[in-house]
Design a protein that fits this description.
It holds the Pfam family ATP_bind_1. Belongs to the GPN-loop GTPase family. The protein is α/β, with parallel strands linked by helices and about 210 residues long. It is about 25% helix and about 20% strand. It contains 5 helices and 8 strands; from the N terminus they run βαββββαβαβαβα. α1 packs across α5. The radius of gyration is 18 Å and the shape is globular.
Length: about 210
């Protein structure tokens, strides 16, 4: 296609432009098993229209994907979700939601690259899925907090029991959240930032 000198390439929408006061940007990944709420969290908290790579689920996934507790889902993330939120006038978080289906986990390494921290979303109906997720973060040296998405039909457990079940040390924060609510999702991100700050103060964050 030939462009004329009078042609213009549209730029980002006004509401999508990075605030001029922003001085620092931090990459955060949101990880978890299939159907745990990663896409919903990015969408609820992002101040820009989120980028999603959802595709319609097909019969190809039958017998391959574990969709327990998510039988009503008709679409799934196949690459990533992307959003942005300004924590302060100076600090901006770039949010990358990872695909939850195990056959797409090979994409995680690229998404983890350069990430300062992570949110591990947990569904108490499928705690076992979280072990591989947290193991991959530990292998990459990415600090994380654990957010328990409060599905209506999911069992509730005290934090002490969850910590034991997930084999997490005391210093890793665990909190409940409702990823459909912007304020709740933002609280999770603020908890992660406070955790990262505490690690930096201890010299444990490089």
């Amino acid at each position: 296609m030939d462009f004329k000198s009078s042609d213009t390439i549209p730029g980002p929408r006004t509401e999508d432009r990075l605030p001029h006061t922003a001085e620092a940007a931090v990459k955060i990944v949101i990880v978890g098993g299939f159907g745990v709420g990663k896409t919903t969290m990015v969408g609820s908290v992002s101040e820009i229209r989120p980028l999603t790579t959802e595709e319609t689920m097909t019969q190809a996934g039958i017998g391959v994907d574990d969709n327990y507790g998510s039988a009503s889902k008709t679409a799934t993330t196949v690459a990533m979700d992307f959003g942005r939120i300004s924590i302060t006038d100076e600090l901006v978080l770039y949010l990358f939601g990872t695909p939850g289906q195990e056959r797409f986990w090979f994409l995680w390494n690229g998404l983890f690259e350069g990430a300062l921290g992570a949110v591990v979303l947990v569904d108490t109906r499928r705690l076992e899925v979280s072990f591989d997720v947290m193991g991959r973060l530990e292998e990459r040296g990415v600090p994380f907090v654990v957010a328990v998405n409060t599905f209506p039909d999911a069992p509730r457990y005290p934090v002490t029991e969850l910590r034991t079940a997930l084999d997490l040390p005391e210093e890793i924060p665990i909190l409940d959240c409702d990823v459909r609510r912007r304020a709740s999702s933002r609280d999770v991100l603020m908890t992660l930032m406070r955790f990262l700050h505490s690690l930096a103060m201890k010299g444990a964050l490089t």
